[in-house]
Amino acid sequence: MDPARDALLWAARNHWLREHLPRYRFVRASVARFMPGETVDEALDAAERLVADGIGVTFTNLGENVTDLEAADAVADHYLDVLGRIEARGIDAEISVKATHLGLDLDGDRTLEHLLRLAARSADLGRHLWIDMESSEYVGATIDLAKRLRAEHANTGVCIQAYLHRTLQDVSDLLAIDCSIRLVKGAYREPPEVALQDRSAVSTAFRKLAVEILQRERGTESRLALATHDVDLLDEIERDSAAAEVDRDAYEIQMLYGIRVADQRRLAREGYRVRVLIAYGTYWYPWFMRRLAERPANVWFALRNLGPRK
Ligand code: FDA
Predict the structure, then answer these.
(1) Whose alpha carbon is nearest atom 48 of ligand 1?
(2) Helix 108-124 to helix 139-152 angle, to the nearest 10 degrees?
(3) C-beta separation of 118 from 80 below 8 A
(4) Model-level pTM?
(5) CA distances (Å), 239 to each of 227, 243, 248, in order?
(6) Tens of pLDDT along 197-232?
(7) 298 lines ligand 1 (CB under 6 A)
């Protein structure tokens, strides 16, 4: 385990830091690299610029672990409103939600009801509803929700983390029901009995899973998103899948707003299907810390914002 990554992921879950760090101007200035703004309008405006470059968008409203059901209801209503705005602007955009933002800690059935409403509305617009994957204590419950949602809505997609030891079985179960998968390396701090610790082992697992999914016979409605900024890994997967005679159109590439922007545009120009996830909202601290942990050198960029403003 990388000690810098470990420390940043610890800080992501620390309540005192969560309360205090976002008050500092240099922290707020640093977040701007990863999100166009806190409001949904700023996210929609950024999306229009990406869509003009041939890049699709996924929106996520930052938040997790709500502590009362009214808050979860408000999150679901918020996303319904966002889907209406996507329709009004006519942009290639969909949404990705966190189960604990929709009340999973409090009432799993209510969370499923919210997901069903959001999937139905997304289906009206011909879009997928994606479910993010959170830390390992939520993985089993999130996969169960995805399976129950997929039983009713073909436009269901769920994020799967390559670093987890359980993932091969989850992928197999999800493919059996033709559920869409967004494959990521995994962003949380997990113990060795739960997840691979070595970065190159995680990349190897990602590569094997991607090729395995691509080689499996899948229904026409499910999608595979390779969600990574690791362009070397994407090249390797393309080589492996070309050898296995898999069509490049069988998958799409997803990246985060503000990361590897030149590659996002290049891949779209080269004819890949590219989608960028845009996060917005005021509850950005834990999400931002996970972005720093992915590349601890980002901390130095953040600290540069401590200097005088030009
Ligand atoms: P890796 O970390 O090896 O990065 C490859 C290269 O990309 C780096 O060398 C660097 O150049 C660049 N890069 C990557 N991250 C960067 C950063 N933060 N800042 C600057 N440069 C960076 N995780 C999860 O657990 N649950 C989820 O639901 C999701 N959802 C999700 C959606 C989408 C669309 C993406 C792209 C990612 C996620 N993730 C996620 C995050 C994922 O698990 C992982 O932590 C990050 O994608 C970083 O890993 P990479 O695969 O990009 O490789």
Answers:
(1) 294
(2) 40
(3) yes
(4) 0.94
(5) 17, 6, 10
(6) 999 999 999 999 999 999 887 777 789 999 999 999
(7) yes
